[in-house]
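Key result, reporting period 2: structure in, sequence out.
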């Protein structure tokens, strides 16, 4: 199965919400950067929670035939990054998200509501 970037982002959001992630935000960065089409950003309450969320996202996307090109931050669980090419998922603990403030850094990107329509 081939998923378009919107579908990948949607799968990631659904998986995160199943694990009770909060402050879920999807940025359409495709118009302001060549890095990716979407950033999916969300919070977990602890390192155990962020790891659980990231694992659920990985499992759900793997069921759809996708594996991340790169993943970082699992050991610490404070900011876990899952890179699916066109979609990059950031699973934060709240303090890390506030500190790095990617929403401000990518302030020119449009915030996309869910569910996204193609």
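The corresponding designed sequence is given below.
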């Amino acid at each position: 199965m081939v998923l378009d970037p919107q579908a990948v982002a949607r799968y990631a959001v659904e998986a995160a919400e199943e694990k009770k992630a909060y402050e879920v935000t999807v940025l359409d960065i495709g118009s302001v950067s060549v890095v990716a089409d979407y950033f999916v950003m969300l919070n977990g309450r602890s390192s155990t929670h962020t790891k659980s969320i990231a694992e659920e996202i990985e499992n759900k996307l793997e069921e759809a035939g996708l594996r991340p090109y790169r993943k970082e931050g699992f050991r610490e669980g404070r900011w876990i990054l899952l890179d699916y090419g066109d979609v990059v998922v950031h699973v934060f603990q709240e303090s890390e998200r506030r500190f790095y403030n990617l929403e401000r850094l990518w302030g020119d990107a449009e915030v996309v509501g869910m569910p996204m329509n193609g």
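The domain at 5-106 is CATH 3.30.460.10 (Beta Polymerase; domain 2). The first strand starts at residue 22 and ends at 28. This case is discussed further under Risks and Mitigation.
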